[in-house]
Design a protein that fits this description.
Elements (H helix, E strand, L loop, with lengths): L2 H22 L1 H7 L15 H9 L11 E3 L2 E3 L1 H19 L28 H26 L5 H20 L5 H9 L5 H24 L4 H10 L1 H4 L2 E2 L2 E5 L2 E5 L5 E5 L1 H179 L5 H73 L1 H7 L3 H8 L21 H20 L6 E3 H14 L12 E6 L5 H15 L21 H6 L6 E10 L6 E9 L12 E2 L1 H84 L3 H170 L1 H49 L4 H28 L2 H20 L20 E7 L4 E11 L2 E3 L4
Parallel strand pairs: 7-9
Antiparallel strand pairs: 1-2, 3-13, 4-13, 5-6, 7-11, 8-10, 9-10, 12-13, 13-14
Helix pairs in contact: 1-4, 1-8, 1-11, 4-5, 5-8, 6-7, 11-19, 11-20, 12-19, 13-14, 14-16, 15-19, 21-22, 21-23
């Protein structure tokens, strides 16, 4: 086999392999989707059908090929074995389903089968040995010549070999081999490796390349071809002959000597010649059919090649189309991705701008807060300075008022002393006046008034005693009043201090209440911060930790982060543990971080009916439930148990009916024994249309590592709830404590005011008691003096009686003096009273001034205290504001960087999108062009299939004619013996035939009609293979009619006697023999194959006289440009 023939074998092998592979392994081919494989020439591409035979019947091959040397080139056993099996594969691919017609059985050993296509070889093994050796000799010669001519394999040639190996890998995988090496060993025998195959391929490819170059270099004109043929006609034209002998019958006779002889006659020779003519005609028909088979095979091969080429073109075009489509889709995906990146960049830019704006707002707010703090500090300083001035002035005023009050007290005392003295003087003057009046009156009486004086003395003594008692009471009242003043003063000072202390406490409580309110407004963030759960704080505040941070509104009403909702969530965890206890499971513990994550997911679920998937934990979500465990546990457990009623989780109950809905993932998560940690979130801000209301989220992990970050504190739910409740209560109680302190402060201030008023009242009472005591003392002194005077008067009256006249005169004179003195004393008392009243008023005014000054001092001090607290608050606010400004500036800087990055990313994404769209336009153009090529290939495939079908029809028709001709030849060759047997039977049956003729006539008519129908249908069938199906149907119908008529004939024969039946049977056998001898056959068409290199033949007849036989010579001629039929 030449190198060019070897390459053609590889091409045919691959094309046939492709067609059968599409039929045998379409599913595997689709799964591989090796659209980029280019089907090229390759000597190792195994036809799948043949490969299956090889692999399944490895004993067929020459498995121990000896080494071979061709010239200086030595071939190893593996290389010779490869060439041997390649020759076998090539032959199997070439003949395909016609192998049986050339006598090759692929199921038997080659060295046990006779080679029928050549007399030069005993077995097929010999044939393929020779083919392999010839191929190696030819390849060696061509490779030597190529090396001398400097011809080498280039990159394209190596690429073609590489593609063959790529196909080998696919084939090996298709047949479930672990490697190409194992596949090669199974297909070609032990020792055949990839290295061996590549070496042989490279030599074959080089030989083919050189041979093709040499062939392409030869050019001849038609004249040169004609001249060469004319010069070498005898060597170009060859003839083949076929001989058939027909023995003529002889007739018995006697010779001149009377001896019995047997010789041919003109009649028997004529009959033999007629038979020979029929054989020649049949051979001519066979030759014509063989030529038609050759033409049909060539047409089928050409159609198959055209179809293979068209299919290869289609695959190439389809591959190009698929690649271009994939490219287009890839570019579209790239464009879509770029658009997604653009949208993401826009969102990032928007978020960054929002953050920058928020930072600006925060800076502005903080600056305003700092400004307010500065203003507050300045105001506090100014207020404090003013208050200090007021305090100094108030203290000065207090000192002045106190001094004035002291002076006023002294003036009152002086005025009171003067008043007391005046009153005493008036009393004395009055007493003296009375005494003078009484003395004058007494002296004026007859007894001198002694009795009256005695009565007055008695009354005066009693009055003096009463006055002394009253004085004692007044003095005691003054002592009591002084003590009340002292007590009231102490009480007032204590109340004033208590009021100051209460106010300080109220201020402290207010600060604590403000801080508590701030923490309440932060909700869980404040709690986690105070408990050191930094990761939980990040979950609720850091966008790098929580993807959907915007959904969280820390501390807002109804938000999952409020402390009340957090407490509610812990109560749900308690309920979850109760349900787990029912299942015999351990209680879940609470993690700070899981609590925060569950709150974040619950807030997300307020506006989304899906899992946010922003944390690694397992999750249950519920919308619109008051108690989510009604769904998670009660409902889903019922579905789970119903599904498990048949022992299998297959969404079917034990009765086979489907469980709808078949969803219980929340339940199985809740009762998963591997889950040990949890967190829960509750919100009342659900905004899902048609649901609204509550949202619940519960997260679960097996351990702290499953959280993916710091778990924070891990506590049992009861301890956690106790800690959180105490924390919440401490914050909510801060305002109540402030209100209580404020109330106490107000009450203390009121008590201080009341105490101050009580002190003033006590002081007023003390002054009054002192005045009354003084008055009582004066009165006692006056009454005692009056009693003394009365006693004196009485005594004097007793003495005066002695000198009544003198005494009366002196008494009247003394009376006048005493009246004058009394009037003067009254005037002095009046003046003293006026002075005392004025001093008392001045004292009251001074006390009022003191009280006012004290109030001013307290107020100024309070202002100073307030200013100090305001200064402290302002300083803290400014510090907070400065920290906020610093953080906001950091946020702003980061936001600006994020904004710049987002803009840059958007610009890059827009470039990528445009590039992808441009590339997609190119790919779409490729798709359109490839689609046109696919369409053209489909049309070519359809044309090739039509041509193949027509050629196959022609082949079938020609094969049928060849079989008929061969059967005719065979029948004619055996006609002599058959005729003898028929004549014997005819003679035997002739005597009985006449008796059956009458019964046979009717049967003959029916038989002849059926035979005519059959012959007509058979002729139609032989005339056109295109009507084969119809002809077969007509044949069947004709056979059926013949059988029916035969049955009728049998029924007619049943009426005849047994002898007639026997005669008829023998007659029928004789008639059948005659018909066979006359060339009538009832054989159907057989399906057979033909060698595609069959030679065109022409029959001629030669009669050999005197030989008793007819010689039929069949000749064929081969000219330079091919085989042709010739006349002889």
């Amino acid at each position: 086999m030449s190198a060019s023939q070897d390459k053609k074998r590889r091409t045919d092998e691959r094309a046939l392999g492709t067609e059968r592979r599409q039929v045998a392994s379409q599913k595997e081919a689709k799964e591989r989707k090796q659209s980029k494989i280019k089907w090229t020439v390759g000597s190792i591409i195994v036809v799948l059908l043949v490969a299956a035979i090889l692999i399944g019947n490895s004993s067929l091959f020459y498995t121990a090929r000896p080494a071979l040397q061709v010239g200086d080139v030595k071939y190893s056993s593996a290389e010779v074995n490869y060439a041997y099996r390649s020759a076998y594969l090539t032959f199997c691919n070439q003949y395909g389903s016609y192998l049986s017609y050339v006598g090759l059985d692929t199921s038997k050993a080659l060295d046990e089968q006779e080679c029928r296509i050549s007399d030069d070889f005993d077995t097929w093994d010999d044939y393929f040995k020779d083919a392999a050796e010839k191929n190696l000799v030819q390849v060696t010669a061509l490779c030597d010549a190529a090396q001398k001519a400097g011809v080498t394999l280039d990159e394209d040639d190596q690429h073609e070999i590489d593609e063959q190996f790529s196909y080998l890998e696919l084939t090996a995988k298709q047949y479930k081999y672990n490697s190409v090496s194992k596949y090669l060993q199974a297909a070609y025998g032990n020792g055949v490796t990839k290295k061996v195959v590549r070496h042989m391929l490279e030599r074959s490819e080089l030989a083919t390349k050189y041979s093709q170059q040499q062939y392409d270099s030869y050019t001849y004109t038609p004249e040169e071809i004609a001249a060469s043929y004319a010069e070498n006609k005898n060597s170009c034209d060859t003839f083949n002959y076929q001989y058939y002998f027909v023995q003529a019958d002889t007739e018995d006779s006697t010779d001149d000597d009377g001896n019995a002889t047997s010789k041919t006659t003109d009649a028997t020779m004529a009959a033999a010649k007629a038979t020979a003519d029929k054989i020649a005609a049949a051979q001519q028909a066979a030759n014509t059919a063989s030529n038609a088979i050759n033409d049909a095979n060539k047409a089928m091969q050409q159609a198959s090649d055209n179809q293979s080429k068209a299919e290869a073109d289609k695959r190439t075009a389809q591959t190009a189309k698929d690649e271009a489509t994939a490219e287009s889709a890839s570019h579209q995906q790239a464009a879509d991705k770029a658009q997604t990146d653009i949208d993401a960049a826009d969102r990032q830019a928007t978020d960054a701008q929002k953050k920058a704006d928020a930072a600006d707002t925060a800076i502005s707010d903080a600056q305003k807060k700092a400004g307010r703090a500065d203003a507050d500090a300045k105001k506090a300083a100014a207020d404090k300075a003013a208050a200090e001035k007021e305090l100094a002035a108030a203290k000065q005023q207090q000192a002045t008022a106190t001094g004035d009050k002291t002076k006023a007290d002294e003036a009152v005392n002086v005025a009171q002393a003067k008043l007391d003295a005046a009153r005493q003087a008036e009393a004395k003057a009055l007493e003296a006046k009375r005494k003078a009046d009484a003395k004058v009156e007494q002296l004026s009486k007859d007894d001198g008034g002694l009795s009256d004086l005695a009565a007055k003395l008695k009354a005066a003594k009693k009055a003096a005693a009463d006055a002394a008692t009253a004085q004692q009471k007044a003095e005691q009242a003054q002592k009591d009043a002084d003590k009340a003043v002292s007590d009231s003063s102490s009480n007032a000072e204590a109340k004033q201090q208590a009021a100051a202390d209460a106010k300080s406490e109220a201020d402290a409580k207010k600060e604590a209440a403000d801080e508590a309110q701030d923490k309440l407004s932060q909700g869980a963030v404040a709690y986690f911060g105070d408990k050191g759960a930094s990761q939980a704080v990040k979950v609720l505040t850091d966008p790098t930790v929580t993807e959907y941070l915007d959904a969280i509104h820390n501390g807002a009403k109804g938000d999952a982060t409020t402390l009340d909702n957090m407490i509610e969530a812990l109560k749900f965890i308690q309920e979850a543990n109760q349900l787990r206890a029912k299942e015999g499971l351990q209680p879940l513990k609470v993690s700070d971080t899981l609590m925060a994550q569950a709150m974040a997911d619950a807030d997300y679920a307020n506006n989304n009916v899906n899992h946010p998937l922003q944390f690694p934990a397992s999750e249950n979500l519920a919308w619109g439930y008051t108690d989510p465990f009604k769904g998670w546990y009660d409902t889903e457990k019922s579905m789970y148990e119903k599904d498990m009623s048949d022992g299998v989780l297959d969404c079917k109950a034990s009765d086979g009916k489907p469980v709808k809905p078949c969803a219980y993932g929340h339940y199985t998560t809740l009762v998963n024994p591997d889950l040990t940690l949890t967190g829960f979130g509750v919100s009342q801000n659900g905004n899902i249309t048609g649901i609204g209301g509550n949202t619940h989220s519960q997260l679960f992990t097996e351990n702290a590592n499953g959280i993916g970050s710091d778990a924070g504190r891990i506590m049992n739910v009861d301890a956690y709830l106790t800690d959180l409740t105490a924390y919440r209560d401490s914050l909510t109680g801060a305002d109540a404590a402030y209100q209580t302190a404020l109330s106490k402060s107000k009450q203390a201030a009121q008590d201080a005011s009341d105490a101050a008023k009580a002190l003033a009242a006590a002081q007023q009472s003390a002054r009054k008691a002192a005045e009354e005591a003084q008055q009582a003392a004066q009165k006692a002194r006056d009454l005692q003096a009056a009693a003394d005077e009365a006693q004196k008067a009485y005594d004097e009256a007793v003495k005066a009686n002695e000198d009544k006249a003198k005494a009366l005169e002196e008494a009247r004179k003394d009376q006048a003096d005493k009246n004058a003195a009394y009037s003067a004393a009254q005037q002095a008392t009046k003046e003293a009273r006026s002075g005392a009243d004025a001093a008392t008023d001045a004292q009251t005014a001074a006390q009022t001034a003191v009280d006012k000054a004290n109030t001013a001092v307290a107020a100024a001090q309070a202002k100073i205290d307030t200013a100090d607290k305001l200064t402290q608050t302002a300083a803290k606010n400014k510090t907070d504001a400065e920290a906020a400004i610093k953080q906001a500036n950091t946020d702003k800087t980061k936001a600006a960087a994020d904004l710049a990055a987002a803009k840059a990313a958007k610009a890059e994404a827009e470039k990528a999108k445009q590039a992808a769209l441009d590339a997609k336009t190119v790919s779409d153009a490729k798709v359109e062009a490839a689609a046109k090529q696919v369409k053209a290939a489909d049309e070519a495939i359809a044309d090739a299939k039509a041509a193949y079908a027509k050629a196959k029809d022609d082949l079938n028709a020609a094969t049928g004619k060849l079989n008929d001709a061969q059967n005719t030849i065979k029948r004619l060759q055996n006609a002599e013996e058959n005729l003898k047997k028929a004549n014997a039977k005819l003679t035997e049956a002739q005597s009985k035939l006449d008796e059956a003729n009458k019964a046979k006539d009717e049967a003959d008519k029916a038989y002849e009609k059926a035979k005519a129908d059959y012959d007509a249908k058979l002729a139609d069938k032989q005339a056109s293979d295109k009507e084969l199906a119809a002809a077969k149907q007509a044949e069947a119908e004709a056979r059926k009619k013949a059988e029916e008529e035969a049955k009728k004939q049998q029924e007619a024969q049943k009426k005849a006697d047994q002898a007639k039946k026997d005669a008829e049977a023998k007659k029928q056998k004789a008639e059948q023999a005659k018909k066979q001898a006359a060339g009538v056959t009832n054989n159907g068409l057989a399906s057979t194959g033909s060698d595609t290199t069959a030679i065109a033949t022409l029959a001629a007849i030669m009669t050999i006289a005197g030989a008793g036989c007819v010689l039929v010579k069949v000749r064929s001629a081969k000219h330079a440009d091919g085989w042709h039929a010739v006349e002889d």
